[in-house]
Amino acid sequence: MRRICAVKRPVRFPVSSTLLRRLALASIIANVGIVVTGGAVRLTASGLGCPTWPRCTDDSYVTTSEMGVHGVIEFGNRLLTFAVGVIALAVLVAVLLHRPRRRDLVPLAVAVLLGIPAQAVVGGITVLTNLNPWVVGLHFLASMLVIAAAYALWRRIKEPAGPAVAVVPAPLRTLAVITTVVSGAVLVVGTWVTGSGPHAGDQGAARNGLDPETISQVHADSVFLLIGLSMALVFAFRAVGAQRAARAATVLVAVELGQGLIGFVQYFTNLPALLVGAHMLGSCLVLLATLSVQWSTRERRPVAPTPAPDVADRAVPVAA
Fold first, then answer.
1. What is the pLDDT of residue 232?
2. What is the pTM of this model?
3. Percent helix, percent strand, percent coil in the chain, to nearest 5
4. How far apart are alpha carbons 27 and 275 in whole angstroms?
C-alpha cells in the first residue's frame, strides 16, 4: 500500500503583492484620467465630434477627415476607454494569479472591469440623445462609481483578508458616513450646475433649464456643509486619539478648500474652460479623499491561521 500526498501545482506566473498594488493604482489613475479627458471633450465643444454611437459616423467606426478636430478629440477619448479597460483586465488577471488567492478581491476587480463598458454605454447614450444634460451628468457619476470601486480594490489589496474592526467610536463612524453621503450629494448637485451652464459640449446641445445662479448657490451651500462636517471630523478624531483618521480628514479638508477655491474663481470669471477642467479633476480628488476618511475609521486584521492537518490525513490511498 502506498500513500501519495495531494500537492497543489504552483502558479506558473505568480503575481506579487507589489505588482498587484501598482496595477490597482494605475487603474485609479486611468479612471480619473478618463474623467478629465471626457471633460476636455465637452469643454472643446467636441461632444458630438462623432455624431453617433457605437460608430463614429453612420459609415465608419473611426473619425474621418470631414469630422475635423472635434472628431479627433471625441474619437480619441473613445479609444482611451479601451486603454482603461485593458488596465482593468490586467488587474483582474493579476488578482487571479496572486498567491495566496484573495477571493475578497475578485468581486471588486470584476466590478471595475464591468463598470468601464457600462460607463461607455452611458457615454454612447449621451451622444444618441444629443448631449442631454441629465444623461451627461449620469455619465460623470457612473465614472465616479468606477473610481470608487477601483479605490476600494486598491485599499483592500493593502489590507489582510480578515474581518473589519472599528478603530473609532460609533458616533464618529456615523459622522464619517454622513460626510460621505454629503460628499456624494455635492457631486450630484455639481452635475446640475454643469447642466445649466455654458459648456454643453456642442453649440446645439440643450441645457437642463435650471437657473444657473440658484443651483450654483445650492451647490455652494452643500460645499460649505461638507467642509464643516469634514472639519468636525478632524477635531473629533484628534479628541479620541485616532491620528490616522485625523490625518485623512485633514487631507480631505485641504482638498475641499482647494476645490472650493477653484469653484469660486471659475464662477466669478465666467467659467473659463481650463478652470472647469481643473474643477472636474478636483471632484475626483474629493471623492478619493472622502473614501480615504471612510477607510480610516476601521482596519482589517489577519485571520488566525488554522493548524495544518497531519500528512496522513491529507494522503490519498492508492492500491499497490
1. 97
2. 0.88
3. 70, 5, 25
4. 25
